[in-house]
Every structure is written in C-alpha cells, then in structure tokens.
Amino acid sequence: MKTLKKAACLLISLAIMAAMSVCACAATPSEARDSVVLIAAAFSEYVDTDGTVYSNILSKGSGFAIGKPGEPISNIVTNAHVVTDAYGNKADTVNVYFSAAANKYMSAQIYVLDTKRDLCVLRLPEATTERRAMVLCRSNDIDIDDEFAALGYPTVAEKANDFIAYDQNDIVITKGGIAKQTMNSDGVNVYMIDISISSGNSGGPLVNSKGEVVGINTYSTSDKASIFSSQVDASANYAVTIDELVRIIDRETVPYVLSTEVNNINLTMIIIIAAAAVVVAAGVVVLILVLKKNKKAPAPAKAAAGTSGSAVGAVVVCEKGALAGRTFVIGDSLIIGRNPDRCGVSFPVDTQGISGVHCEIRKSAGGYEIIDRGSTYGTSLGTGQKLTPNVPVYIANGTYFYLGSPDQLFQIKY
Fold first, then answer.
1. Do 118 and 218 fall within a single domain?
2. What's the structural domain count of the chain?
3. Boundaries of domain holding 245
C-alpha cells in the first residue's frame, strides 16, 4: 500500500513539473543570457568582399537557442555571415561554445542557411541542457515603446580583454530602443535600433524587457562591408525581425515557441493540469488495487517461430544519392526529408537540395501516390515532371522519382 501511495505522489509531482516546464523561459534580458552562445567558424580559405583570399581565418559571432521551453535544445540561430565568407562559401568547421574556459562546446552542422535574410540555423549533434530555448516575439506583438537589449560577445569588449571564460557571465547586455521598423534594399524586414553593436554581436538576440527575442542583431552601416546593400545613414544599427526567422524555420519544420503561446498559459491552466494529475493518479491506485484482487490471467500462447503477421508490402529504393542502396517500407504513409523527428526516411542534415519535410508517399485507391510537401527545390518524377506542391500524383509500380535533382533518385516497388 505504501508503494502505491508513493507511486501516486510521484505521478502528481511529475505532472506538476511538466505543467511548470512550459513556462521555463527568460523573464528579463539578464535571464536571457542562459540562451546565448559564442560561435566560432574556421575557414581554411576566406574570400573577402574585394576578392582577397585569406588563409586560416576564425570568424566569431553570437547565437541563441530555440526550441520548446523546458526541453533540451538542438538548434542555434545566428547570422549567415558568421559561418560563410563574403561569397557564401561555408566554414570548414563551426563550433558552438557554452564555456570556452571549461572547454564546453559542440561542433555543429549548418542546417538552414538563408544568405538573403542573413540567417542561419545550426543543428547540434545531440540535444543539450547547456542552454535553454528562447521565446520568439513577432513584430505585431512588440511594444515599440519598450526597452530592448542586444546580447552577445561584441568585439569591442574582446579587444578590451573583458572576456574571461566566454560563458554566460561574459555576455554583454546593451540596452536602448527601436527607432523604427523598415525594409532594406533586399526586401528584408529589419529594425533600426539605437543600440551600438559591433561584429561579435552578429547573430545574437535582440530582446524585449521580458527576455523574448524580437530580432537578430545583424549589421551596422559603419562596418567596412555591409551585409546588405543598405542606403541608410552611417553609424545606424540594424536587427533582422523575428518574423523573417519564423518564415524559414516554418519551412524547415524547426521547433520554436512564440510569446503569444507562452502568455496564454496562465496559473489557471497549471491548476487544471495539476488537478487532472491528481484524478489520474487516484484512478491508477484504484485500478491497481482492483487488479491485485483478480487472478493473474494466463500468458498468451507464443507465435510459432518464423511466422509473420503481414507481408512487407510496398517499398521505395534509393537508386542514387546520399541514401543509395537502402530500401524503405512505405506502410500507409512514408515521409522523406532532413528532419528526423518528422520523417521516416531521414537524410543527413547537410544534404543539399533536401528540405526538412520534402515529400510524402501514401496509399491510395488501387496503388500509391506521391505529394511534394512544399519543398524548396521540388520533387519530380523520373520523366522530369515537377510536382505541384501539396497536389497528390498517382505513381505506378516501378516509377522513378527524385528530390531536388536527379542526384537523389528513388524507385517505388509494389
């Protein structure tokens, strides 16, 4: 009986902790430091804006974690120019530092790269609790009269030897306001901010007084080479709006949470969840007590060795590309892409031309159909016919299709 009571108490505690975890996010700019990282990108060859080639260059910037509050994080946001040279060539290695002094870092992969918006999402090799996910705040939800803060590792502080460990304690917080929201000549929505930023700030978060990310600190017109072809006054500083980030992480199904979602979770909801946990725990105790009074049911007979419940059924075979030689069972539905959390067929995260969720194959009347799920580079049949996004097309047995280009070639067999 004591064991049952302990089990019930444990269930209640876990439910309450789960309810509280959804609110585990920064409440002030200072608390937001627990989400910011240092990024170091190494180039064996770096091409500058004037075409000059430099050897063994280390580019440093800032970044911040996104994901679901209360859960380990796997994705880091930064600027594209932190991990590429002036001509868009990627760094050889990208390290995400949680503490350089403690030698805590991970080598990340460039998962999403948008050079027009100057945004990048890095994927860590495994989820970590070294940082916590930040809450994103769209431009329609900000208070323009609020006080804002830029977080990161600016080079001006580095030159003054203000950095010791390159951890949360070394993060510089610079406060000010948003002068206006505007659009640069590349059509990217940006905030003009009266907060001084320098190159090391690149990729760091611009947060409101609640510690929610409203933008990504990106460039100043005093830089020797502007990231955007901007026509604004010298000494102005700019941050890309969070709306621009949401557009690309929605497309690539990268998890995140918005301020409107978090703000809708209040104390009443937590009480409701906790009360439900109590009811569930009580029900579990009653069920166990009832089951203990009943005799143990005989174990079902084991199936004969070598028998199978059903045939394998239809499959897709990768004839060419990153997954060449591998066969995948379709079942009722099979999703193909780079996001392992969403896809039954998962490409390596650095595979070019493959979206997070690229396409889907599913059963239909009399056979199977293929649907492109809004991928960036498209899905085509072997004949060269490019599929219209989200419009299913019947595919007969033996049909070839490819993702992005013929270099990623598959065949369906059933």
1. yes
2. 3
3. 25-263
- Encoded tokens for 340: 């392992």
Q: Kindly list the strands in the beta sheet with 333-337, ordered across the sheet, starting from the edge strand earlier in the chain.
A: 345-346, 333-337, 359-364, 367-372, 393-395
For the segment 323-358, what is each residue's pLDDT rounded down to a tens digit?
A: 999 999 999 999 999 988 889 999 988 888 898 899
For residues 154 and 281, membership in a common domain is answered with no
**Residue 400: strand pairing partners:** 411
Cα dist from 245 to 78, 134, 403, whole Å: 10, 13, 25
Cα→Cα distances 146→192, 210, 214, Å = 14, 10, 11
Question: For the chain, what is the radius of gyration of the CA atoms?
Answer: 26
Q: Examine the domain organization and report whether 123 and 149 are in the same domain.
A: yes
For residue 251, give Cα distances in angstroms to 161, 177, 320.
41, 30, 25
CA atoms of 341 and 322, how far apart (whole Å):
19
Spatial strand order in the sheet of 400-403:
327-329, 315-320, 409-413, 400-403, 379-381
- Give the β-pairing of 205-207 and 172-176: unpaired
Q: Are residues 208 and 277 in the same domain?
A: no
Summarised one tens digit per residue, pLDDT across range 202-244 is 999 999 999 999 999 999 886 444 444 444 445 789 999 999 9
Q: Give the DSSP H or E segment for 159.
A: helix 155-159
